């Protein structure tokens, strides 16, 4: 089977028909499925959508069970955790619902880890890291756009001269460069290319 637009997070099962991996949706399986919005809800108390998945957490005074339900816990209530807690061998420890969050100095609230500045994020050479609360994503560098080419998604150079995204003077030529563009005044004119006289 051939899928002309590809199946980003799925597999091609018929002519232009994609079967998405769990946690993804859309014609080309390129959209994250918000499991928190599904009926029945996957979590009893609170739900945080993540890329391709989700995380459950409980209100204060409750402990998260493996099936997403929340069990009452008097000791947890006394600790006053932001995102619920767990009890291990009689010790109460606050939890954070994502690996991109860490317990703050007070041991009760979760603070964001900026994966982009700590170097934990891995983005390919032509992508830049964008930090989000509890995670991050990789976006094409400025001057590039995401396109599906020969079986995979890649960041390709935007030809600003063709898309008219340049600010060259009326009396200048636009020259496309990798990730950018240049303006050169036409013969008989002088200037920066943005201003020609």
From TrEMBL:
Question: Is Cytoplasm one of the keywords?
Answer: no
Which Pfam family, any one of them, does this sequence belong to? EGF_CA
Entry's Gene Ontology BP terms: cell adhesion; cell differentiation
Record key words, sorted: Calcium, Cell adhesion, Developmental protein, Differentiation, Disulfide bond, EGF-like domain, Extracellular matrix, Repeat, Secreted, Signal
Query: Where, subcellularly, is it found?
Result: Secreted, Extracellular space, Extracellular matrix
Q: Gene3D superfamilies, alphabetically?
A: Laminin
One molecular function GO term is:
calcium ion binding
> Where the protein is mainly located, per its record?
secreted
Q: Where is the EGF-like domain?
A: 32-71, 112-150, 157-195
Q: Which domain of life is it from?
A: Eukaryota
Q: Which family does it belong to?
A: Belongs to the nephronectin family.
Q: What is this protein called?
A: EGFL6 protein
């Amino acid at each position: 089977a051939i899928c002309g637009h590809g199946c980003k997070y799925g597999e091609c099962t018929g002519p232009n028909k994609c079967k998405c991996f769990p946690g993804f949706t859309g014609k080309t399986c390129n959209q994250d499925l918000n499991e928190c919005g599904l009926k029945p809800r996957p979590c009893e108390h609170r739900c945080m959508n993540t890329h391709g998945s989700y995380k459950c957490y409980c209100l204060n005074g409750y402990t998260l069970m493996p099936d997403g339900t929340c069990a009452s816990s008097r000791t947890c209530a006394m600790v006053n955790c932001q995102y619920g807690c767990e009890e291990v061998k009689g010790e109460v420890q606050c939890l954070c619902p994502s690996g991109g969050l860490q317990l703050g100095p007070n041991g009760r609230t979760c603070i964001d880890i900026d994966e982009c500045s700590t170097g934990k994020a891995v983005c390919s050479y032509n992508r830049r890291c964008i930090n989000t609360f509890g995670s991050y994503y990789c976006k094409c560098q400025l001057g590039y756009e995401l396109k599906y080419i020969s079986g995979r998604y890649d960041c390709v150079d935007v030809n600003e001269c063709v898309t008219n995204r340049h600010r060259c003077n009326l009396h200048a030529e636009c020259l496309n460069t990798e990730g950018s563009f240049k303006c050169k005044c036409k013969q008989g004119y002088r200037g920066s290319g943005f201003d020609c006289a």
